[in-house]
């Protein structure tokens, strides 16, 4: 069996990624591969469809990108910028000018930025406390990074199901 046919985590360690952060990186890369594969031919006109009132494919794509950006910001010990706050406010608000390609490219870019940050994260800081949100709810660097990976895979699953249902129901 070719390594390319294996899930990312079975392909071995990723260069330059600290050992304790390999699982986070594997999960993000797996999500990226699946998202790109399943949305390769997804039509723009179905982006905002909400079968049975569930979140749209567009929302999930925006949310995946936004959460990665926000959680990795907190992991660096930084507060959100005004631009990040504005992005959060627009997640899920229908905008017919947005395309599948734009949203997928934004997610891909965010995954690449996250991997750069993972490669540059010193394992000795993983248990350091970081504040989340305006209330500065305490978490740790590793807790935030793990949550980013877990959250990404959860929303990817929802996105994939929604995309299949929308294609069946609307098309």
Give a verbal description of the structure:
With 171 residues, the protein is mainly α. The protein has a single domain (19-40, 54-170), classed as dinb family like domain (Four Helix Bundle (Hemerythrin (Met), subunit A)). The chain is built from five helices and two strands. The chain has helices spanning 22-38, 57-75, 82-90, 100-119, 141-170, and strands spanning 129-132, 137-140. Strands 1-2 form a two-stranded antiparallel ribbon. A hairpin with a 4-residue loop joins strand 1 (129-132) and strand 2 (137-140). It is globular and about 50 Å long. The mean pLDDT is 95.
Features:
about 170 residues; globular; DinB-like; two-stranded antiparallel sheet; 2 strands; mainly alpha; Four Helix Bundle (Hemerythrin (Met), subunit A); single chain; about 5% strand; about 55% helix
Explain briefly what this protein structure is:
This is DinB-like domain-containing protein. The protein is globular and about 50 Å long.
Task: List the total number of helices.
Answer: 5
- What is the CATH class name? Mainly Alpha
Average pLDDT figure: 95
Structural class assignment: mainly alpha
**Mind telling me the CATH superfamily name?**
dinb family like domain
Pfam family, one: DinB_2
Organism: Emticicia aquatica
Protein name: DinB-like domain-containing protein
Domain DinB-like: 28-159
